[in-house]
TrEMBL record:
<dbReference type="InterPro" id="IPR036565">
    <property type="entry name" value="Mur-like_cat_sf"/>
</dbReference>
<comment type="pathway">
    <text>Cell wall biogenesis; peptidoglycan biosynthesis.</text>
</comment>
<dbReference type="GO" id="GO:0047480">
    <property type="term" value="F:UDP-N-acetylmuramoyl-tripeptide-D-alanyl-D-alanine ligase activity"/>
</dbReference>
<dbReference type="GO" id="GO:0071555">
    <property type="term" value="P:cell wall organization"/>
</dbReference>
<dbReference type="InterPro" id="IPR005863">
    <property type="entry name" value="UDP-N-AcMur_synth"/>
</dbReference>
<feature type="binding site">
    <location>
        <begin position="100"/>
        <end position="106"/>
    </location>
    <ligand>
        <name>ATP</name>
    </ligand>
</feature>
<dbReference type="InterPro" id="IPR000713">
    <property type="entry name" value="Mur_ligase_N"/>
</dbReference>
<keyword id="KW-0132">Cell division</keyword>
<comment type="similarity">
    <text>Belongs to the MurCDEF family. MurF subfamily.</text>
</comment>
<keyword id="KW-0131">Cell cycle</keyword>
<dbReference type="InterPro" id="IPR035911">
    <property type="entry name" value="MurE/MurF_N"/>
</dbReference>
<dbReference type="Pfam" id="PF01225">
    <property type="entry name" value="Mur_ligase"/>
</dbReference>
<feature type="domain" description="Mur ligase central">
    <location>
        <begin position="98"/>
        <end position="286"/>
    </location>
</feature>
<keyword id="KW-0961">Cell wall biogenesis/degradation</keyword>
<dbReference type="GO" id="GO:0051301">
    <property type="term" value="P:cell division"/>
</dbReference>
<dbReference type="InterPro" id="IPR013221">
    <property type="entry name" value="Mur_ligase_cen"/>
</dbReference>
<dbReference type="InterPro" id="IPR018109">
    <property type="entry name" value="Folylpolyglutamate_synth_CS"/>
</dbReference>
């Protein structure tokens, strides 16, 4: 079926698209996607009952003869992606694409907060950053959007390349590259190559522009050949230069434009971790580039509150918690631990959960975390959670799962501690918060 015909169905449905048959706004377009444990084709009729005006399916057996509400295509996912790309070409909205190993979602939120001070800005909700979430995000854009910030994730080579073909970004930003999803990428080199697919697209684009951390030698090398590089970092060779002013718990910084004199600005954020400096500088740099007033940039960044267990600080009656339990990989784990060790606190404790999707490198990378911990005696107590940490050679208290930790904490209550909680989302360490 021609893309123009599919796109017309999308327009006839007022741009309302759903992939959940249980949530079909009246007059919407339902797209039947398939996964390992589900087949949306089987729920097409239910989607129609629940309010969908049309359903896109790729299984002819579910089509009811004579019912023109069924739209049969070869591949429903491909149809979704084609419609998103076609819709993108209909829009003049400048798009900033963001990828990277760590900090994608936080950086995206910071940038969006800054741009919203001046522009009607469309941006990825939550972490809908994959081959389904990205096209859905594009299709929810309207002609009235003045800016867009699109997050792109990947766990296999070629995925960023495919997403850039859908998004057609005008600007790009890679937060960093590190050891994550090694099961899919194979190696750190595989991560670098895949994330750099965004740079490859910008190199081919006339006037392609990248916002880049000047302090990151890997990214600077990969970015060679892009028409315009807008830099940020701790060096005065950058467009925007910044340094940490005070990182005891929440992060404060000073920043300035080296080309101007007497323009030092101070920002007190609600973010935890020195490692967030580059993310904040990226948002400042983009704000400056798009002429957002300096006072609005400051207000946007100071008002931003971390969500979804990402770099969150919480003070309870008994303890201070640093909750960073949405995601974990060797790079982000060591960054969090380094930052935690540098904090000024009397009684420190860490609860660490397994780092998922590391493949053959899993034992080695988990052991490196243990080796780091054994060298830092200022951490008074360490609790480990998960099968991977269990395989390491360690002297710490270990638990199979988070429920065992909860039972332990009932019998061994913790008070007057500053506690770092860090692990992959699947370990569910965030459920421990109420135990303190």
């Amino acid at each position: 079926m021609y893309i123009k015909t599919l796109y017309q169905y999308y327009k006839d449905c007022g741009g309302q698209i759903t992939t959940d048959s249980r949530n079909c706004p009246k007059g919407s377009l339902f797209i039947a996607l398939k996964g390992e444990n589900f087949d949306g084709n089987l729920y097409a009729s239910k989607a129609l009952e629940n309010g969908a005006a049309f359903v896109i399916v790729d299984n002819p057996e579910v089509v009811i003869e004579g019912d023109d509400r069924y739209i049969l295509v070869h591949d429903s996912l491909h149809a979704l992606q084609q419609m998103a790309n076609y819709h993108r070409q209909m829009l003049k909205t400048p798009i900033i694409a963001i990828t990277g190993t760590n900090g994608k979602t936080t950086t995206k939120e910071l940038i969006a907060n800054v741009l919203l001070k001046k522009y009607k800005t469309h941006y990825t909700q939550g972490n809908l950053n994959n081959h389904i979430g990205v096209p859905l995000t594009i299709l929810s854009m309207t002609a009235s959007d003045e800016m867009a910030v699109i997050e792109m994730g990947a766990n296999h080579p070629g995925e960023i390349k495919d997403l850039t073909r859908i998004v057609l970004p005008d600007y790009g930003l890679i937060t960093n590259v590190g050891k994550a999803h090694l099961e899919g990428f194979g190696s750190l080199e595989g991560v670098i190559r895949t994330k750099s697919e965004l740079y490859d697209y910008l190199k081919e684009k006339k006037n392609g522009t990248a916002f880049i951390n000047f302090d990151d030698s890997i990214l600077m090398k990969q970015a060679e050949g892009i028409s315009h590089l807008i830099t940020y970092g701790t060096s005065e060779s950058t467009s925007v230069c910044g340094k940490i002013d005070d990182s005891s718990l929440t992060l404060s910084l000073e920043w300035y434009k080296p080309t101007l004199s007497n323009n030092i600005q101070r920002i007190n954020t609600q973010l935890i971790g020195d490692y967030n400096l580059s993310n904040i500088l990226a948002a400042i740099t983009i704000g400056v580039f798009f002429k957002v007033p300096i006072e609005d940039i400051k207000e946007a960044l100071e008002q931003y509150t971390p969500q979804n267990n990402r770099s969150q600080f919480k003070k309870t009656e008994s303890n201070q918690l640093i909750i960073d339990a949405y995601n974990a990989n060797p790079t982000s784990m060591l960054a969090a631990l380094n930052n935690f060790c540098n904090l000024k606190a009397e009684h420190k404790m860490v609860i660490l959960g397994d780092m998922r999707e590391l493949g053959k490198d899993s034992l080695l990378e988990h052991q490196k975390i243990i080796d780091f911990l054994t060298k830092h005696k200022d951490i008074e107590k360490v609790l480990l959670v998960g099968d991977e940490f269990c395989k390491t050679n360690h002297p710490y208290t270990h638990f199979k799962d988070v429920n065992e930790v909860k039972n332990y904490l009932v019998s061994n209550p913790i008070t007057d501690h500053t506690i770092l909680i860090k692990g992959s989302n699947g370990i569910r360490l965030f459920t421990l918060v109420d135990s303190f």
